[in-house]
Hints:
477 residues; mainly beta; Elongation Factor Tu (Ef-tu), domain 3; Jelly Rolls; 3 domains; 10-stranded mixed beta sheet; 7-stranded antiparallel beta sheet; 41 strands; 3% helix; globular; Siphovirus-type_tail_N
Amino acid sequence: MKFNGIKKSYLKTSRKKNRPPWMPIHRELVTVVGKPGAYLSNTQKQIRTINVPVLLLADDLSDLQKVKEDLANWLIHDEPKELIFNDEPDRVYYAVVSGSLDLDELVYSGQGIITFLCPDPFKYGHEKTIHFPSDQVIVENNGTAEADPIFELTATKKSTFAMISNGEDYNLIGQPSDVDVEQVDSEEILINERGETLSEWNTPPIKIDSHTAVIDGSMGTDGTGIVPLNYGSGDAWHGPARAIEINPIQDFEVEMKCRVELTRPSDTFRIETYLFDENLNVIGKIAIVDSTVNGSQVAAEGRSGDWVGNNVNYEISSKNYLRRTNHFHGVVKVTRKGKELIFYAARLGSGDNPIHHDTLTVSRFITDSNLLGRLKYIQIHFGKYGQSTNATVPRINQLKVTELKEVSVDKTPYIIYPNDVITFDHKNEDILVNGEPRKDLKNFGASFFTLKKGDNQLLVTPEDSFETNVRFRERFY
Length: 477
């Protein structure tokens, strides 16, 4: 028996174990006078209970007590964990231990029955990943129950929509365009900096917040992003900054993906991106920061306007996004559409298309005309405080500046661009675009359909626009 990915050499399961062939099913019936039998009104799939007779082996009675302590540490959790039996290695239960274990103790062993409860009563096969060789495929579900698929569509060209359908139901973001309607770009990427073209950031630094007064030192690239090469010197906040000029734009999105390691409580750092208009007014700032020498923590920041005081005009700050951690891999973003500023912070998972989690979105309506100037300058800055120790490789992995374009009602906007990854997650009922939750894009009539038992005919549209994979786990009663 393996539980939570662990086997114990001191535990042996009995050959007398008897697992039911299916989960408990409760039928609710309604009887009607004068009618034979009853009507089936409801069916409930109930919690699965698994009783496992076990033998615990020990060197002596004293060692047996230690074995019992280790057993408790292994089996007791607040959430269900994977449970796999040796005689059924290709099936997984999700279980929590329940009740107590009353052992018949001998000198070198103890016998008893461990009871597991499965709040999710299904058992699962191992995850399957199937690549679509074409836009229309048949996917076979060999389970005895319906399965929840996760579709991943990687765009090979621009598109106004993405849809997956099983012939009866569909999931969809965007809008298919009529043949006589013009398709237009809704955005244009102006900067996509990963360090390779940092030499083009040759506009003199403009300024940093008044409490981080010294611009000094230099920055460069380590092959995976932009990093500080040295911070220069200063008694307070200090470090390098570089700026770049673009053709002025009104509506925009600025996204900074970054990473940092804190190896000592005395480490401090700032990773910041400033936005300036044509008159060098500060439109806003996004950042991550650790400003204490008494522990490891990371705060995300999103501010509108210039610095006028700690936590003043900050939509995101240590007040609502502070994580007591020594590692941060995440993203901060600011979007301006019309008179609305939207700030976003999230942590990123692993892999080529990391999923966003621990997210926060805060928006504000702009009433100050100084915040409505056209974006012309972008400045990045790394900082540390005084003689505090340096964080380990604070890095901007990617800085992206995108112009958002207004699309008239008689045109259909492209919302998907090459290499964008659309995830229709029917397991968790979510939609992701490049790892970011975007359920707001879901079409009104779309649904998170399942894979039925047997063959499922699936169609991806528009044609020849995506490389598609589906992941799912077959379920069994």
